Every structure is written in structure tokens, then in C-alpha cells.
Amino acid sequence: MNPNEAPPVVASPIADLSYRGYDGPLRAHPARWWIVALAGIRAAFKNRWFWALAAGAFLPYVFHGLIFYVTTVFAPQGGGGPPMMGSDANGQRYAMVFFQAFTGFEWLWLFAIALMVGAGSIASDNGANALQVYLSKPITKADYLLGKWMSIFLMVSFVALAPAVLMYAFLGAACANLGFFKNEPLLFPHVVLACLIPGAIHASLLVGFSAWCTSSRIAGALYAAFTFASKILVGILWMVHYDHNPAKGLLLQHGSVDGVISGLAQRVYGIAVQVSPMFRRRAMMGDPIIPPPNVLALGGIALGACLLAIAAARWRIRAVEVVRG
After folding, report:
1. Which residues make beta-bridge pairs with 290?
2. Max CA pair span of the chain
3. pTM (predicted TM-score)
């Protein structure tokens, strides 16, 4: 070889050794996502704080259930009972007590559960470079994302459903002779459907936040800031535009994360909320009944936000950063 001659340009073999995900045949069980979801579920069950927060989620149902039981079963007329905290059930007494428990402080417990389970769901894998391990296995990105989504959804839904189902059984046994099953035969499917809403909303939004972070604390802080900032901003805008009138600006009132959840739950139960006399005098309202928000508009907002967050997570999930130049 002539020393003055330039060496031939040969493509280095290492240039072709970029990381590739598993591209072999997928002959495993069709529910491959379950392996990913099961890892998140087991981690949550082993965390003592999960059980502490789950126990706290019983408190709103215990409070509202006991008040309803005492004021209804022990009423002098045998079951008439006074209106529940300024809100008469108007023929849907039992649906109203479930809705009141659901929208009390229950959302805080479910929000804390979602943060604990979901903040680090993808962010921890990003920080530990575990995506290379996951995606080298016979699973796709969709399997991985669905598994993470299901682990959050199932844990939040489990915590939401457990106290609601127990209160349904309790009131069913205590109020069977007061028309519990006869007057509201579809109450149980409504309870189940309403309790699935928080899990779906939190899981969809959290995978979007978590996928773009490398730390569970940062992902949790960003999601908490988004949730509370949207609640405060919506409240300020509603007060400025509608002067504390609860009957106006229904869609704007439900513009935050917990507002979307409560609005969809109110539509599922199909109830109209009665405003307390104090708020009626303050807002000079003639009609004390507040109907549920428009389900198409509110459902469209919720669906759009959830799909956007899932798409952002799907775009961000990759085994390695590929730098093209």
C-alpha cells in the first residue's frame, strides 16, 4: 500500500449496529400487555402507601352513607328523610348519595393513587434505560404503552370501585324495603361506569406526562401542577365571566381535570344538582336546579385531551435516542 495514497473509505460495520427493537415473530399470548401491566400492579400492591390511600378513599362513602342511612331509615315517616345537604334527590335519592360521595373529597384520594402508581410508570423506565429491555422482548410499543395505561387504570378503578360497591351492598340490604332496587334498577351499572371515569382520565394524561420525563418526581410534580393550575384558572375565569352564578357557564366550570370527571359522572347518574339556599341568594338565582353539562362537548374535550396525551407518549417511547445527521 502506497503511504501517500489515501486509505479507502469503508463504512464501519458499527454504523449498521444501531439499536433495533424486537422484530421477530409474535407468537406469545395476544394479551402481551398484561405482563407490563402486572409488573405495575404488583409494585403498587407491595407499597404500603397504596393501601393507606385506598383506605382513605372509603371515608367519603362512609360519611355520606351513614348520614343517608340515619336520615332515611330512622325518619319518622318511615323512609322519607330530609334533603341531603341542600340537594334533594328528586326521585333519584340513591343516585344522589353516590354522586355526593364521588364528588366530595374522593377525587383527592384517587388523584393521589394515580400519582403514586402512574407518575413513574414510564419516567422510571426512561431514567433506568429499561425501555431497551422491554422493547427487546417480543412486545410492541403499543403493548408496552397499553400495559402501562392499564396498570394505572386498574389500580385507580379498583380504589374507586371498592367503597362504592360496598356502600351499594350496605344500602341495598338496609333500604331494600324503601324502593332501593325497584325505584332505581340501573343504579349499579351507573355506579360502576362512574367509578371507571377517573381511572381512564388519569391513566391517559399521566402516561403522556410520564413518557416525557426521566424522574417520577418530576412527572408527578408536573401533573399535579397541571391539575391544580387548571382548577384555579377555571375557577377564576368562571367567577369573572358569570359572577358566581352556578347555573351559568356549566362547561367552563368543568374545564379542569376533576371538573371533567365530576361532569361526566353527573351525566352518567343523570341527576340535577340543587343549589343550597346560601348560594342561590348570593347569585340571585331563580331556578335552584343545575342540570348536567353538555355530554357531547364535555366528552369531546375529555376524549381529545386523552388521545393527545396517549399520542405524545406513543411518539416519545423509543428504546434509544437516534441522532440523524
Report:
1. 273
2. 111
3. 0.83
